[in-house]
Write a structure and sequence with these properties.
Elements: H1 6-19, H2 21-42, H3 46-67, H4 74-78, H5 81-86, H6 92-121, H7 126-153, H8 160-188, H9 193-222
């Protein structure tokens, strides 16, 4: 019996992702371009920029993450690798979990790393930038986890990107609300720990439940 560990599964997905490095940079460039266009369009009204910063950055992060979700399982499905992964002597939910983490590493993590540079354009202070980074670090894993369910449900379907968006966007709304709410609270000088705690709760719940839900969806799609 072939032994497969969790790190090997993650490394496999990361290696495949870096073979198409253009897809990785497209997510990051989309995030940077969308966020940077607003200060250019609105002008030098620093107070207005600070007020809208949270919503703009989080919406851009959400849309950027969605760009690569339709390929989470599609490439493995197209070349038959998904069937082989289902035959591995490990639970399919563990395979899905590894894909979720790999997706976050190549999509969500770079957004959090580059977010302070973009936050400066919106006149955010040091503490506000810290809350911005923390909210993205806590919230973007949930975007990948929830997106994995939608990606699994749309395997092999035509116009899967449109259907995927319709399926997962309503589930993203709480993350968007609490993520932007944490930054708004920091800007207003209010307590923001409650928002971050709620984001963390959503993320932990998503990371625990999504692999099982996505694994069931994959089995259904492959039948």
């Amino acid at each position: 019996m072939i032994k497969v560990n969790f790190l090997q599964l993650i490394c496999r997905d990361l290696k495949l992702a870096f073979r198409q490095v253009g897809d990785i940079f497209s997510v990051l460039f989309f995030f940077i371009i969308v966020v940077s266009l607003f200060p250019l369009g609105i002008g030098a009204d620093l107070d207005l920029l600070k007020k809208i910063a949270a919503g703009i950055i989080w919406v851009a992060a959400l849309l950027s993450t969605m760009l690569s979700l339709n390929k989470l399982f599609a490439n493995d499905f197209a070349d038959g690798s998904l069937e082989q992964l289902m035959l591995l002597p490990v639970p399919l939910s563990l395979v899905v979990f590894s894909k979720i983490l790999a997706h976050w590493i190549i999509s969500g993590l770079p957004l959090a790393i580059f977010s302070p540079i973009l936050g400066i354009q919106f006149n955010l202070s040091g503490e506000e930038l810290w809350v911005l980074i923390l909210s993205l670090l806590l919230g973007t894993p949930a975007l990948s986890a929830i997106g994995a369910i939608g990606s699994a449900l749309t395997i092999g379907l035509k116009s899967s990107s449109v259907l995927l968006s319709l399926l997962i966007l309503p589930l993203y709304i709480p993350i968007l609300i609490f993520g932007s709410g944490a930054i708004d609270s920091a800007i207003s000088g209010m307590e923001y720990s409650a928002h971050l705690s709620l984001i963390l709760a959503i993320t932990l719940s998503s990371l625990f439940l999504s692999p099982f839900a996505a694994a069931m969806a994959i089995r259904t799609s492959m039948e």
